[in-house]
Write a structure and sequence with these properties.
Largest sheet: 10 strands, mixed
Strand content: 15-25%
Shape: globular
Structural class: alpha/beta
Helix content: 25-40%
Distance between the termini: 38 Å
Radius of gyration: 20 Å
CATH topology: TIM Barrel
Number of domains: 1
Number of strands: 12
CATH architecture: Alpha-Beta Barrel
Bound molecules: ligand PBG, zinc ion
Number of helices: 11
Length: 322
Protein backbone atom coordinates (compact mmCIF):
# COMPACT_ATOMS: atom_id res chain seq x y z
CA UNK A 1 0.00 0.00 0.00
CA UNK A 2 1.27 3.47 -0.89
CA UNK A 3 0.82 6.11 1.81
CA UNK A 4 -0.51 9.17 -0.01
CA UNK A 5 -0.01 12.66 1.52
CA UNK A 6 -0.78 14.02 -1.97
CA UNK A 7 -4.52 13.38 -1.40
CA UNK A 8 -4.70 16.57 0.69
CA UNK A 9 -2.82 18.61 -1.92
CA UNK A 10 -5.26 17.88 -4.74
CA UNK A 11 -6.78 21.34 -5.08
CA UNK A 12 -6.63 24.82 -3.62
CA UNK A 13 -9.67 24.33 -1.40
CA UNK A 14 -8.28 21.34 0.45
CA UNK A 15 -4.80 22.91 0.63
CA UNK A 16 -6.29 26.03 2.21
CA UNK A 17 -8.20 23.88 4.71
CA UNK A 18 -5.13 22.09 6.02
CA UNK A 19 -2.66 24.99 5.96
CA UNK A 20 -0.76 24.90 9.26
CA UNK A 21 0.48 28.47 9.13
CA UNK A 22 -1.62 31.55 8.50
CA UNK A 23 -0.74 35.20 8.26
CA UNK A 24 -2.84 38.21 9.07
CA UNK A 25 -2.21 41.88 8.42
CA UNK A 26 -2.38 42.35 12.19
CA UNK A 27 1.03 40.67 12.51
CA UNK A 28 2.92 43.29 10.54
CA UNK A 29 4.86 46.34 11.71
CA UNK A 30 6.11 48.82 9.09
CA UNK A 31 9.34 50.80 9.76
CA UNK A 32 9.79 54.50 8.91
CA UNK A 33 12.82 56.80 8.74
CA UNK A 34 12.02 60.36 9.84
CA UNK A 35 14.04 63.44 8.88
CA UNK A 36 13.94 67.17 9.59
CA UNK A 37 12.46 69.69 7.18
CA UNK A 38 9.25 70.23 5.30
CA UNK A 39 7.55 68.22 2.63
CA UNK A 40 10.47 65.98 1.71
CA UNK A 41 10.25 62.37 0.59
CA UNK A 42 13.79 61.19 0.05
CA UNK A 43 14.21 57.77 -1.61
CA UNK A 44 16.86 55.55 -0.01
CA UNK A 45 19.14 54.23 -2.76
CA UNK A 46 20.11 51.11 -0.84
CA UNK A 47 16.48 50.18 -0.16
CA UNK A 48 14.37 50.40 -3.34
CA UNK A 49 10.81 51.46 -2.48
CA UNK A 50 11.70 52.88 0.95
CA UNK A 51 12.09 56.61 1.66
CA UNK A 52 12.89 59.00 4.45
CA UNK A 53 10.02 61.34 5.33
CA UNK A 54 9.72 64.69 7.02
CA UNK A 55 7.00 64.72 9.66
CA UNK A 56 4.37 66.37 7.43
CA UNK A 57 5.05 63.92 4.58
CA UNK A 58 5.01 61.05 7.08
CA UNK A 59 1.47 61.95 8.15
CA UNK A 60 0.32 61.69 4.54
CA UNK A 61 2.02 58.34 3.98
CA UNK A 62 0.80 56.85 7.26
CA UNK A 63 -2.75 57.82 6.36
CA UNK A 64 -2.37 55.89 3.10
CA UNK A 65 -1.08 52.86 4.97
CA UNK A 66 -3.89 53.04 7.51
CA UNK A 67 -6.45 52.72 4.71
CA UNK A 68 -5.12 49.30 3.81
CA UNK A 69 -4.67 48.23 7.42
CA UNK A 70 -1.06 49.04 8.33
CA UNK A 71 -1.73 50.38 11.82
CA UNK A 72 1.55 49.61 13.58
CA UNK A 73 4.69 51.54 12.70
CA UNK A 74 8.26 51.68 14.02
CA UNK A 75 10.05 55.03 13.90
CA UNK A 76 13.76 55.77 13.42
CA UNK A 77 15.12 59.31 13.65
CA UNK A 78 17.75 60.41 11.13
CA UNK A 79 19.98 63.47 10.92
CA UNK A 80 19.94 64.69 14.51
CA UNK A 81 22.93 66.32 16.17
CA UNK A 82 25.63 63.79 17.06
CA UNK A 83 27.65 64.25 20.25
CA UNK A 84 29.82 62.36 22.69
CA UNK A 85 27.07 62.10 25.31
CA UNK A 86 24.25 61.59 22.76
CA UNK A 87 22.15 64.21 24.55
CA UNK A 88 19.98 64.86 21.48
CA UNK A 89 18.65 61.28 21.81
CA UNK A 90 16.44 62.39 24.69
CA UNK A 91 15.68 65.90 23.49
CA UNK A 92 11.92 66.45 23.38
CA UNK A 93 12.24 68.25 20.03
CA UNK A 94 13.80 65.48 17.94
CA UNK A 95 12.02 64.52 14.72
CA UNK A 96 10.93 61.27 16.36
CA UNK A 97 9.31 62.99 19.34
CA UNK A 98 7.73 65.51 16.96
CA UNK A 99 6.47 62.74 14.69
CA UNK A 100 4.96 60.84 17.61
CA UNK A 101 3.11 63.93 18.87
CA UNK A 102 1.72 64.75 15.44
CA UNK A 103 0.78 61.16 14.60
CA UNK A 104 -1.08 60.73 17.86
CA UNK A 105 -2.76 64.14 17.51
CA UNK A 106 -3.94 63.32 14.00
CA UNK A 107 -4.76 59.61 14.20
CA UNK A 108 -5.26 59.00 17.92
CA UNK A 109 -5.59 55.36 18.82
CA UNK A 110 -6.13 54.23 15.23
CA UNK A 111 -2.33 54.18 14.89
CA UNK A 112 0.05 52.27 17.18
CA UNK A 113 3.40 54.04 17.30
CA UNK A 114 6.55 52.22 18.37
CA UNK A 115 9.90 54.02 18.59
CA UNK A 116 13.37 52.54 18.24
CA UNK A 117 15.52 53.27 21.27
CA UNK A 118 19.23 53.35 20.47
CA UNK A 119 22.07 55.86 20.53
CA UNK A 120 23.85 55.09 17.23
CA UNK A 121 22.14 57.90 15.30
CA UNK A 122 23.02 60.34 18.12
CA UNK A 123 26.62 59.48 19.11
CA UNK A 124 29.67 60.98 17.44
CA UNK A 125 31.16 57.48 17.25
CA UNK A 126 28.09 55.96 15.60
CA UNK A 127 28.06 53.26 18.25
CA UNK A 128 24.89 52.20 20.06
CA UNK A 129 26.26 53.24 23.46
CA UNK A 130 28.59 55.87 24.91
CA UNK A 131 32.36 55.49 24.51
CA UNK A 132 34.67 55.31 27.52
CA UNK A 133 38.36 54.44 27.10
CA UNK A 134 37.78 53.30 23.51
CA UNK A 135 35.12 50.83 24.61
CA UNK A 136 31.33 50.99 24.35
CA UNK A 137 30.49 51.52 28.00
CA UNK A 138 27.48 49.63 29.24
CA UNK A 139 26.29 51.25 32.44
CA UNK A 140 26.66 54.92 31.50
CA UNK A 141 24.61 54.22 28.36
CA UNK A 142 21.66 52.87 30.34
CA UNK A 143 20.65 56.24 31.74
CA UNK A 144 20.67 57.89 28.30
CA UNK A 145 18.67 55.05 26.75
CA UNK A 146 16.10 55.18 29.57
CA UNK A 147 15.76 58.95 29.18
CA UNK A 148 15.28 58.52 25.43
CA UNK A 149 12.51 55.99 26.08
CA UNK A 150 10.88 58.34 28.60
CA UNK A 151 10.98 61.28 26.15
CA UNK A 152 9.30 59.22 23.44
CA UNK A 153 6.71 57.93 25.88
CA UNK A 154 5.95 61.44 27.08
CA UNK A 155 5.50 62.44 23.44
CA UNK A 156 2.84 59.72 23.20
CA UNK A 157 4.61 56.58 21.93
CA UNK A 158 2.50 53.46 22.46
CA UNK A 159 5.53 51.18 22.83
CA UNK A 160 9.31 51.54 23.01
CA UNK A 161 11.78 49.17 21.38
CA UNK A 162 15.40 49.22 22.63
CA UNK A 163 17.81 47.96 19.94
CA UNK A 164 21.13 48.84 21.54
CA UNK A 165 22.06 45.46 23.10
CA UNK A 166 23.43 46.96 26.34
CA UNK A 167 23.02 44.62 29.32
CA UNK A 168 20.31 45.69 31.75
CA UNK A 169 18.61 48.23 29.52
CA UNK A 170 15.16 46.66 29.72
CA UNK A 171 15.22 46.88 33.52
CA UNK A 172 16.58 50.45 33.38
CA UNK A 173 13.89 51.61 30.93
CA UNK A 174 11.13 49.81 32.88
CA UNK A 175 12.25 51.48 36.13
CA UNK A 176 12.32 55.01 34.69
CA UNK A 177 8.99 54.62 32.88
CA UNK A 178 7.33 53.27 36.04
CA UNK A 179 8.82 56.03 38.18
CA UNK A 180 7.18 58.58 35.87
CA UNK A 181 3.78 56.96 35.83
CA UNK A 182 4.13 55.10 32.54
CA UNK A 183 3.75 51.62 34.00
CA UNK A 184 1.33 50.78 31.16
CA UNK A 185 3.76 51.45 28.31
CA UNK A 186 5.12 48.15 26.98
CA UNK A 187 8.71 47.41 25.98
CA UNK A 188 9.51 45.35 22.91
CA UNK A 189 13.13 44.39 23.36
CA UNK A 190 15.45 43.63 20.46
CA UNK A 191 16.56 40.92 22.83
CA UNK A 192 18.45 38.74 20.41
CA UNK A 193 20.23 40.91 17.90
CA UNK A 194 23.17 39.59 15.96
CA UNK A 195 26.16 41.55 14.66
CA UNK A 196 25.16 41.26 11.03
CA UNK A 197 26.12 42.34 7.53
CA UNK A 198 22.38 42.32 6.80
CA UNK A 199 22.08 45.79 8.40
CA UNK A 200 24.23 47.40 5.67
CA UNK A 201 21.49 49.25 3.73
CA UNK A 202 19.86 50.43 6.99
CA UNK A 203 23.05 52.16 8.06
CA UNK A 204 22.95 54.18 4.85
CA UNK A 205 19.26 54.91 5.46
CA UNK A 206 19.74 55.97 9.08
CA UNK A 207 23.26 57.37 8.76
CA UNK A 208 24.19 55.25 11.78
CA UNK A 209 27.31 53.32 10.74
CA UNK A 210 30.04 53.22 13.40
CA UNK A 211 32.94 55.51 12.47
CA UNK A 212 35.46 52.89 13.49
CA UNK A 213 35.28 49.34 14.67
CA UNK A 214 32.20 47.15 14.55
CA UNK A 215 29.34 46.24 16.88
CA UNK A 216 30.68 42.85 17.94
CA UNK A 217 31.35 43.85 21.55
CA UNK A 218 27.62 44.27 22.13
CA UNK A 219 25.64 42.60 19.33
CA UNK A 220 25.67 38.80 19.28
CA UNK A 221 27.96 36.40 17.47
CA UNK A 222 25.99 34.71 14.69
CA UNK A 223 27.44 31.33 15.61
CA UNK A 224 25.67 31.16 18.98
CA UNK A 225 22.26 29.64 19.61
CA UNK A 226 22.34 28.95 23.36
CA UNK A 227 23.49 32.49 24.03
CA UNK A 228 20.71 33.78 21.76
CA UNK A 229 18.11 32.04 23.89
CA UNK A 230 19.78 33.30 27.06
CA UNK A 231 19.50 36.92 25.87
CA UNK A 232 15.77 36.51 25.31
CA UNK A 233 15.23 34.84 28.68
CA UNK A 234 17.15 37.59 30.48
CA UNK A 235 15.05 40.28 28.80
CA UNK A 236 11.83 38.47 29.69
CA UNK A 237 13.02 38.34 33.30
CA UNK A 238 13.86 42.06 33.22
CA UNK A 239 10.29 42.78 32.21
CA UNK A 240 10.26 42.91 28.41
CA UNK A 241 6.66 42.58 27.20
CA UNK A 242 7.86 41.24 23.85
CA UNK A 243 11.19 39.96 22.60
CA UNK A 244 12.72 39.84 19.14
CA UNK A 245 15.08 37.93 16.90
CA UNK A 246 16.98 39.99 14.35
CA UNK A 247 17.83 39.44 11.49
CA UNK A 248 15.20 36.88 10.53
CA UNK A 249 15.92 34.87 7.39
CA UNK A 250 19.29 33.44 8.36
CA UNK A 251 18.07 32.89 11.94
CA UNK A 252 14.92 30.78 11.66
CA UNK A 253 16.39 28.22 14.08
CA UNK A 254 16.85 31.00 16.62
CA UNK A 255 13.24 32.12 16.18
CA UNK A 256 12.08 28.56 16.88
CA UNK A 257 14.34 28.15 19.93
CA UNK A 258 13.39 31.51 21.46
CA UNK A 259 9.68 30.82 20.81
CA UNK A 260 10.01 27.68 22.91
CA UNK A 261 12.02 29.32 25.70
CA UNK A 262 9.91 32.37 26.55
CA UNK A 263 6.20 32.93 26.98
CA UNK A 264 5.98 36.56 25.86
CA UNK A 265 5.12 37.36 22.21
CA UNK A 266 8.02 37.09 19.78
CA UNK A 267 8.75 39.46 16.91
CA UNK A 268 11.28 38.96 14.14
CA UNK A 269 12.89 41.76 12.14
CA UNK A 270 13.15 41.08 8.41
CA UNK A 271 16.03 43.54 8.07
CA UNK A 272 17.22 45.90 5.37
CA UNK A 273 19.55 43.65 3.33
CA UNK A 274 17.01 40.82 3.41
CA UNK A 275 14.60 43.27 1.83
CA UNK A 276 17.10 44.77 -0.62
CA UNK A 277 18.21 41.38 -1.93
CA UNK A 278 14.62 40.50 -2.81
CA UNK A 279 13.82 43.89 -4.32
CA UNK A 280 16.93 44.08 -6.51
CA UNK A 281 16.61 40.49 -7.74
CA UNK A 282 12.93 41.13 -8.51
CA UNK A 283 13.70 44.40 -10.33
CA UNK A 284 16.24 42.50 -12.44
CA UNK A 285 13.50 40.08 -13.41
CA UNK A 286 15.30 37.17 -11.76
CA UNK A 287 12.67 36.15 -9.19
CA UNK A 288 8.93 36.40 -8.61
CA UNK A 289 8.72 39.09 -5.93
CA UNK A 290 5.29 38.29 -4.53
CA UNK A 291 5.97 34.57 -4.22
CA UNK A 292 9.43 35.02 -2.68
CA UNK A 293 8.18 37.61 -0.18
CA UNK A 294 5.25 35.47 0.93
CA UNK A 295 7.41 32.35 1.20
CA UNK A 296 9.71 34.32 3.51
CA UNK A 297 6.81 35.62 5.61
CA UNK A 298 5.35 32.14 6.03
CA UNK A 299 8.80 30.89 7.03
CA UNK A 300 8.97 33.46 9.84
CA UNK A 301 5.51 32.53 11.10
CA UNK A 302 6.17 28.79 10.78
CA UNK A 303 9.43 29.19 12.73
CA UNK A 304 7.43 30.77 15.55
CA UNK A 305 7.29 34.53 15.04
CA UNK A 306 4.05 36.12 16.26
CA UNK A 307 4.90 39.52 14.81
CA UNK A 308 6.88 40.46 11.69
CA UNK A 309 8.66 43.77 11.25
CA UNK A 310 9.23 44.21 7.53
CA UNK A 311 9.73 46.82 4.81
CA UNK A 312 7.57 44.56 2.61
CA UNK A 313 4.49 45.16 4.80
CA UNK A 314 3.02 47.90 2.62
CA UNK A 315 3.33 45.83 -0.57
CA UNK A 316 1.86 42.79 1.17
CA UNK A 317 -1.32 44.51 2.30
CA UNK A 318 -1.74 47.08 -0.46
CA UNK A 319 -1.23 44.58 -3.28
CA UNK A 320 -3.41 41.97 -1.62
CA UNK A 321 -0.72 39.32 -1.25
CA UNK A 322 -2.25 37.82 1.90
C1 LIG B 1 20.04 50.53 15.45
C2 LIG B 1 19.33 49.60 14.53
C3 LIG B 1 19.85 48.92 13.42
C4 LIG B 1 18.76 48.26 12.84
C5 LIG B 1 17.63 48.54 13.62
N1 LIG B 1 18.01 49.36 14.66
C6 LIG B 1 21.20 48.89 12.83
C7 LIG B 1 22.35 48.39 13.60
O1 LIG B 1 22.25 47.87 14.70
O2 LIG B 1 23.45 48.56 13.06
C8 LIG B 1 18.81 47.43 11.59
C9 LIG B 1 17.54 47.37 10.81
C10 LIG B 1 17.69 46.93 9.42
O3 LIG B 1 18.78 46.58 8.93
O4 LIG B 1 16.66 46.94 8.73
N2 LIG B 1 20.69 49.91 16.49
ZN1 LIG C 1 22.14 51.31 17.46
Amino acid sequence: MIIRPRRLRKNAIVREMIAETRLSKDMFIYPYFVIKGKNIVQPITAMPGVSRFTVDALLVDVEKGLKSGINKILLFGVGEEKSEDAHSAHDSHTVVAEAVRELKAKFGDTIYVITDICLCAYTESGHCGLIKDDYVDNDSSLDVLARMALTHTQAGADMVAPSDMMDGRVAAIRALLDMNGYENTPIMSYSTKFASAYYGPFREAADSAPGKGDRKSYQMDSRNLREAVREAVIDEQEGADMVMVKPALAYLDVIRAVREAVSVPLACYNVSAEYTMVKTAAAAGLIDEQRIVMENMYAFARAGADVIITYHARDIVEKGWL
